Amino acid sequence: MERRLAATFLLLLPLLSVDCVSNQKTTVSWCVLSDAEEQKCLDLAGNATARNVRGSLMCVRGLSTRDCMEKIKNGTADAASMFADDIYAAGLCHGLALAAGESHNGVDGISYYVVAMARRSSSDLSLLEMHERSSCHPGVRTTVGWTVPIGYLVNTSQISVGEQCNFPKVVGNFFGYSCVPGIKDPLHDPRGNNPKNLCEACIGDENDRHICANNHRERHYGEAGALRCVAENLGDVAFVKHTTVFDNSDGKNQESWALDLELDDLKLLCPDGTEAGLDEYLRCHLSDVPANGVVVRVEDKCRVWKYLERLQNVFGNATEGFSLFSSAGYGQSDLLFSDATHHLQRVLGSYTSWLGPSYTAILQAFECEGFC
């Protein structure tokens, strides 16, 4: 009996590892998007060869993330690191998969949490009753400032875009006034008819210029800017990362508005209509945002992971020489992988299993815009 079981296992063994055994290709072609990323890729390739890492790395230049998806699909590239939104598009539109994902030394696979932050003195606020309240967003079409909060409003039936799929219009009709930097830029408002009230909580620069600009000349732009918008009582709620308030308090931000910022002055608004303390973001957030992942063709999941595992074993925790998760010296950040990456983990499941149910549901709220 034992011998029969052993024989059956040996017969099944090739099937269990078929995705690795059947593909003997030893070069992994990585799609990069900038001169700095290409240089880091070339340096990694050279260092891997010098350290006798089995396999080889080739760097392929892509024009955009979507171009990298096409290159991976047609075989002119094998892999690329992508944000969560792009992972969704790669899987949905091109049938691509994930070989690996980043872990940031917190909860595996989670990059950060999107939270709704308000002043503690605002006693009549609820995320389930935000109609005609004022809101502060880091920027238009950002994950934190747009995709997650607006997706939440759609999924809780507080707004409905209908057949026209005009998100700016329905968001403008929903909130009383807001600051959504970039909402009136020609890129995001080609017809010039996005609602003006989505800029009414913006303040521009010190000379009252560049109001609602999609850059730091608008003082309510970005994570810190959205928090400032609420701290200065120009907005009821700010949609930010869970780390934003901690990054701008206790003297970490020396701008005048932040010097007197007390953590006790702020609270989180929860999706169920309740509120919580700033340190309770694990149970009180709009969505967790998945960390970046390595997009590949389905048949290359195992092969690419094995190569990444070998690279990680040599360069993942390097204290000198080349470091896989550092972009120091290249003039840009988050090259090939996020600089916050602690290690890469293998992704055995589908791309939606990596994205998770809450974030996948958020993205599905925007399906009328078309991802493909």
TrEMBL record:
It holds the Pfam family Transferrin. It is found in: Secreted. GO terms for biological process: iron ion transport; otolith development. Its main location: secreted. Residues 28-368 form the Transferrin-like domain. InterPro entries: Transferrin-like_dom (IPR001156). Transferrins are iron binding transport proteins which can bind two Fe(3+) ions in association with the binding of an anion, usually bicarbonate. This is Serotransferrin.
